[in-house]
Amino acid sequence: MNRPAPDLSRLSLNQETVRQLPLPELAAALERTGVPGVGLWRGPVQQYGPEAAARLARDHGLTVTSLCRGGFFTAAGPAERRRALDDNRAALDEAAALGTGTLVLVSGGLPDGSRDLPGARERVADALAELGPYAQERGVRLAIEPLHPMYASDRCVVSTLGQALDLAERFPAERVGVVVDTYHLWWDERVPEQIARAGAAGRIAAFQVADWVTPLPEGVLLGRGQLGDGSVDLRGFRRQVDAAGYQGPVEVEIFNPRLWERDGAEVLAQTAQRYAEHVLG
Amino acid sequence: MNRPAPDLSRLSLNQETVRQLPLPELAAALERTGVPGVGLWRGPVQQYGPEAAARLARDHGLTVTSLCRGGFFTAAGPAERRRALDDNRAALDEAAALGTGTLVLVSGGLPDGSRDLPGARERVADALAELGPYAQERGVRLAIEPLHPMYASDRCVVSTLGQALDLAERFPAERVGVVVDTYHLWWDERVPEQIARAGAAGRIAAFQVADWVTPLPEGVLLGRGQLGDGSVDLRGFRRQVDAAGYQGPVEVEIFNPRLWERDGAEVLAQTAQRYAEHVLG
Question: ipTM of this model?
Fold first, then answer.
């Protein structure tokens, strides 16, 4: 007897998970595997052209679930701040062209030599205020992604879901939401209550999954684990997010050179199988 | 004009900061530099003999501010748990022999294959309950050290000061306290209120300082920064701890191979100078 095919209707693959696949091959492989969603990155989208990428996704029946990423709002100087805002407006235009409603934002770390975390966090709020109307006009929501505290100095001063919600709630829910990413949040015992809070307020803009594995590599950027290989209770997370009222895509986003060395289509098939085994049900 | 000599009366050096120095050389160098405190580790103390180490410290006018470390309480099997408790009783005996009132505890990570963080945290509480009376009889306080969330899976399931206090407060303050370590806690915006809470309840058993620098090395264990080299507002931390009523030692604990490669006495002198510049005042 064959097992019934798993329900992949909510699955989305973030393209960085299989960065070895050029966009057209990725789109074709997703369609073949029955994965209906894709999360895209600005670099490859710009290279391919946002309109062409949108057409490619449509031709393969794919929904673009998010664009990664805007943000990096924490610079203190006015010229740098202006550049960051301009770049985020361009990202919002690209997101609109792709037809995705979600621009993922990584806040940025501490400016060189600074030790002022609260000040940097306040500049993130300033940028959200400035970008909010522009985003709303384009039908794109700004999605604040709290990153693991190990990135607080050099990448993202927003480290917990609670902090991200405190920021988001200064703005209307249709303008600013949050990203719930298991890799960044799994250690935090307050996450269940914060997921409930986010869901009740309609703030969950994206749900991303990756597993936590050790040892962490130098620089700690490229050490995410394939689903099921690590310490995260992925199914428990998914159930909490669902119970909070979220019905959107589940986007797998894994940065790991060991996945990139393999055949992309094979990694995609494995990921769909791991999703069925460790996230669904 | 010479500047007045800095007040080193609260400074303690954790021996791992200059692990290149054997215990007798370390003790002599500390006395020469005018550093009155030392934090010791079980390995070198066992090798030298706890009573001999206590005598050495006394002969050089040094106070042993802490012993590192007990803990690793999260194993699920009864035999492993019994071994861990026995080992912690031995550590308490060693701490008593050294005349220090503080045994630093690193809780332990998730057992192999487990994804149950709440369960592991509960086993830490069980161990504290079991060891509490034994510790109190020896005049040693169990000091729960929250470690940075990047260690949650493989080293310490207690990741925030709030969590450590929730655990500690199940027990009398004279039995169980917490360690406030800037390296582990600097990113957490709730730390100011948690330091105030810890101080008000007399729960601050130790205050340790190191700076946060990136990129993190592979395994993320040996990447702590010399005071002043990184992102942590060390002076702000020290002021908060003081304002909470803590009057004990300030222990510098830096794990960094670049310090170990240098002349130990020179690192010690630099550390005292950095302490004066970045922690005092």
Answer: 0.96
